[in-house]
Amino acid sequence: MTWAGAVYELWRRELLKFGRDASRVGGAILQPLAIWLLLGFGFRETFHLPGAAADVPYLEFLFPGIVALVVLFTSIFSTISIVEERKSGFLQAALAAPAPRTLLILGTTLGGSTLAIVEALLFIALMPLSGPTPSLAGIGLMLLATALVGIAFTALGVTIAWRTRTTRGFHAVMNLFLLPLWVLSGAFFPAQGTAAVLEWVIRLNPVTYAVDGLRHGMYLPDVPPFAIASLEASLAVSAVFAFAMVAIAVHTVNKPLNR
Question: Is residue 258 domain-resident?
């Protein structure tokens, strides 16, 4: 089998595993959907955005961040299998194959990001419920931002799963990393109007620019009044973040397996 064939089989395997487990499919999209509706309607009358965005409903403001949350949950569910496969012996068999370990990262990351795009697309179909109706170019831009953050989150999940022995430990570490990254990404509340220190934390958070890219796609061709950066800057930072996470995952996997 060629290296491209090996990556394809690993990619295909991730999709099959996810599709055969209905609870994973439902959990990856239903939980973010519930959070979006509960927070969106719960804070509808009490949460007011600053400045020119003051008339934007909170349900609408929250939508891009929930798309990012869908990707987060999809990444968690797709990479936790690495912990389980260490016990079943599949991971050891894959490492013993005459192919670079980098292929394992590529196949797993591509599979996880593909799942994230599919789940995000299903959620984006609900966007008219939040207010704006996206253009085709806007949807394409949102899917590009989703792909970048999906690659980053999946690669980060691979890195954590590679060094974690139990699923309980995996969830604990993932929550420690991913939930703060999401909350402090401008998804839950905007950087404008917060304390100066918190605003800088949000601006330095790479996930902020992935959420920002989703916002730009949501309002394309208009620019959202609460955007952190330009469209080009948001996509560039997201691409660098995705590349950095893949590089870290490759470096981690090329070390001896933690048993």
Answer: no
Torsion, Cα 122 174 207 33, to 10 degrees, reads 30
Tell whether pTM > 0.85: no
DSSP conformational letter for 186: I
- Work out the burial of residue 177: count CB atoms within 10 Å of its CB; fewer than 13 is exposed, 13-18 middle, 19 or more buried: middle
Query: Structural domain tally of the chain?
Result: 1
Q: In terms of residue numbers, what domain contains 175?
A: 3-253
Q: Which range has highest mean pLDDT (82-96, 108-122, 206-220, 244-258)?
A: 206-220
Residue 96: other Cβ atoms inside 10 A: 8
Helices (H), the chain: 3-20, 22-42, 58-79, 81-88, 90-96, 102-124, 136-162, 167-182, 196-204, 206-219, 231-253
Quote the DSSP letter at residue 47: -
